[in-house]
Amino acid sequence: MPWESNGGGGGRNNGGPWGQAPGGGGGPRRPGGGTPNLEDILNRGRDRFQGGFQGGVPGGRWAIVGGVVALLAFWGLNSIYTVNPQEVGVELRFGQPKDELSMPGLHFLFWPVETVERVVITENQTVIGTGTGGGNRAGNREGLMLSGDQNIVDVRFSVLWAVSNPSEYLFNVRDPEAMVRAAGESAMREIVGRRPAQDIFRDDRAGIALEVRDITQAILDSYQLGVRVSQISIENAAPPSEVADAFNEVQRAEQDEDRLQEEARQYANTLLGDARGQAAQLREDAAAYANRVVQEATGEAERFNAVFAEYVNAPAVTRKRLFLETMEQVLGSSEKVLVESGAGNGVVPYLPLPELRSRSTTTSTTPSGSGN
């Protein structure tokens, strides 16, 4: 061997690194009297190690027992697991999930054939968008959406969701939370794109939130994500900062329009109320007039019936009485005197008694006034 001739020349080196130590030291020697080489040292150590196991040395037996106990402890630590109160466990056997779930508490499985995955089942919140009008400056454009009336709105909303099927949640989609975010954003963009901007700003936020929740749930169900969306909360909606001033002007103009329309409606209601009152009064007057005319006609008819009954009993007397009453009514205010043809030679002159009466009245009034 090369390391056997370290001293140079062909002889043994009693003081070299593999020979006897200087001064007669007792270093290891070969059976033939020389110093042992490295292979002898390694072989001797291997023989001693094997002899400790085969020859029944007590230290080797306890080493085996200790190794077995350590393996059992390691296996037990991996086979016993705990599920926290807000979690459920999904046990896997050769990578295939079991149907039953592990409820909170202490559980056992046969590791490494079986493993467990834990899922938090409490409600989660995924916030989407900025909703502050500064999405462009912050570099976050996920909240900028185009409305149905061609306006750009910046929406900030939250998706509240919880795991309903842990097996589907763990193994059907690689990143479930990113999937929830993408589905919520897609649903919001779809609904906002159908509606005018005023609906998302103030008019119909509740209706938009319900529609977004239904569409988001339908998308997640199509991917079998195992997630239940409980609520969509629209936290803020505003125009982008670049057009905020113009949008505010439009809002003020719309408010003025609403105010003027409200004043016009009030004025119209006032006129309409007056007209309805006048119409009601006219209807009442017409009804009263009709009632009066009917009552008078009824009275006249009853009087006629009464006269007719008397006429039936005494026609000549009644006829003469009616004639005299009628002539009295017709000629009562007349200033002419009619003389029958048989009473004289036609119409004779007569004194104008009414004129004389009026003149005498005037004469008697004038002196009394001058005496005063």
Automatic annotation (TrEMBL):
InterPro entries assigned to the protein according to its UniProt record, in alphabetical order: Band7/mec-2_domain, Band_7, Band_7/SPFH_dom_sf, HflK
Q: Where is this region: Disordered?
A: 1-40, 350-372
Any one Pfam family match given in the protein's UniProt record, by short name: Band_7
For the keyword Secreted, the answer is no
Q: How does it sit in the membrane?
A: Single-pass membrane protein
* General function of this protein: HflC and HflK could encode or regulate a protease.
Q: What is this protein called?
A: Protein HflK
Give the species: Devosia geojensis
